[in-house]
Each structure stands twice: as C-alpha cells, then as structure tokens.
Write a structure and sequence with these properties.
By secondary structure, this protein is of the alpha/beta class. It is built from seven helices and 17 strands. Helices cover 33% and strands 16% of the residues. The strands form four sheets. It has a six-stranded mixed sheet. The chain has a five-stranded parallel sheet with strand order 3-6-9-12-15. The radius of gyration is 20 Å and the shape is globular. The two termini are 33 Å apart. This is serine O-acetyltransferase. Belongs to the transferase hexapeptide repeat family. It comes from Nyssa sinensis.
C-alpha cells in the first residue's frame, strides 16, 4: 500500500470536484504514456486505469479482480465495491481493503472479509478504529483486533500484531497514539496505551503502557530512550520513519 492518508474523501464543493477530475485525468494521462513506452503493460493499464471514468470505478474493478474466486465473481465484487463508494462519501479504504466492515452485515460480507485476509495477508477487525494518514509499510501479516484504536499519522511495518492477551474480554486491544512508529514483527498485547510519538522496536513484545515520545524495544519491551517534553517542531516518528532517534541514558530502564 502507498504511504500517506488511505482515506478517500470525495470533495464537497464544485471547485473540489473539478480538482478531483483534474487529478484523475492526470493519472490517466500518465498511464497512457506508460502504456506507449511499455507496450507489454498496455492491456493492464487500459483495463485498470485508462478505461475508467473515475477513481471509484478503477478501484472497484481492481479490487474485484484481485479478490475474485470461483465462488466470488469479479462482477459481483465490482458492484459491491462501487456501491460502497457511492453510498458512503467518507469511505475508509483501509476498512474496505481489509474487512469490508462498513455498514453492511451478512454472510456475503463475512466471506469477503475472509477472502481479503487470504489474498492480502492482512486481518483487521471491522470494528477497529483507525485514524487518517496511516502507513502499512509492506502491508503483510498485520493483525489488528476488534477494540484496537489507532491514531493519526501512525506507521507500522510488516507482521505487526495489535492483539489481546486472551485473559480478558471487552475492551482488550491496544490504543496507539498519534505519530507512533511500530517496527517489523512487533507485538502489542492487551488494553495498553502507546503514547503519542512513541516508537516500538522491531520484534518487541509490549505488554504494558509506553510513555509518549519514548522508544521501547525487546521481549519484554524495555525503554531505551525518551523525551517526555513535547515541542512544536519535534519529529513525528510515524511520518519520519526514523527508528534510531530517542536513544539515550535510559538503556537500563525497564518499562
């Protein structure tokens, strides 16, 4: 998945509509240019981009073909996705791509959720609350539980788990603050809070709260660096993707 905000927000005003049209026109122009310079890709680019009148139709076609099977026809999926884009003007693509939770219920949508998990290797519960500006870098092996909450501008690499401990019910999954960076293979379990601007090192297992603007690594995770102060110009780890800063005299402080 690309970096940045995964939320698709259709514009509200005529001026924005025109801007959206110009952006889509530019995408199609670039696709035509690529098709001319690389003829082997011409058929693919035409079917997925050039032949479609809008982003919604292009995405619906692309997802329908990605997720179709002998029992889930691409034409059926195309209609489902396009209807979702049309009926919900503030549609979360992360929700669409990973669970098709939206406002729909039923066996078909459960089957589609299972199919999406199989194809993309990502399992996000439709009830999880996810902010904007999310980056799933590589987007493989990510698991996010039902009561998890993810703030804005959060980045996580592959094989990250936001799960439960198995000991409690109800509100049992992590709460991730704004600007958090979670390294590859990190596991965060239980109703714990990861503070704003914190970093979780690759392969770490976090079972208790992590303060804001600190770095936690290891199994079990320990604090190896931190700045408790907040400032207007401080970096946002989820945006900078810097895994190495905040290292300081805290190396022996166990969280």
């Amino acid at each position: 998945m690309p970096a940045g905000d995964f939320r698709y927000s259709p514009p509200a005003a005529a001026e924005s509509d025109s801007e959206e049209g110009r952006i889509w026109s530019q995408i199609k122009t670039e696709a035509r240019r690529d098709a001319e310079s690389e003829p082997a890709l011409a058929s693919y680019l035409y079917s997925t981009i050039i032949s479609h009148s809008s982003l919604e139709r292009s995405l619906s076609f692309h997802l329908g073909n990605k997720l179709c099977s002998s029992t889930l026809l691409s034409s059926l999926l195309y209609d489902l996705f396009l209807d979702s884009f049309s009926s919900d003007p503030v549609l979360w693509l992360t929700e669409l791509l990973t669970s098709f939770g939206l406002s729909h219920e039923g066996r078909l949508h459960l089957a589609l959720q299972s199919r999406i998990s199989d194809v993309f290797g990502v399992d996000i519960h439709p009830a999880a609350r996810i902010g904007k500006g999310i980056l799933f870098d590589h987007a493989t092996g990510i698991v996010i539980g039902e009561t998890a909450v993810i703030g804005n501008n959060v980045s996580m690499l592959h094989h990250v788990t936001l799960g439960g401990t198995g000991k409690v019910g109800g509100d049992r999954h992590p709460k991730i603050g704004d600007g958090v960076l979670i390294g590859a293979g990190a596991t965060i379990l239980g109703n714990v809070k990861i503070g704003e601007g914190a970093k979780i090192g690759a392969g770490s297992v976090v079972l208790i709260d992590v303060p804001p603007r600190t770095t936690a690594v290891g199994n079990p995770a320990r604090r190896v660096g931190g700045r408790e102060r907040s400032g207007q110009h401080e970096e946002v780890p989820g945006e900078s993707m810097d895994h190495t800063s905040f290292m300081s005299e805290w190396s022996d402080y166990i969280i």
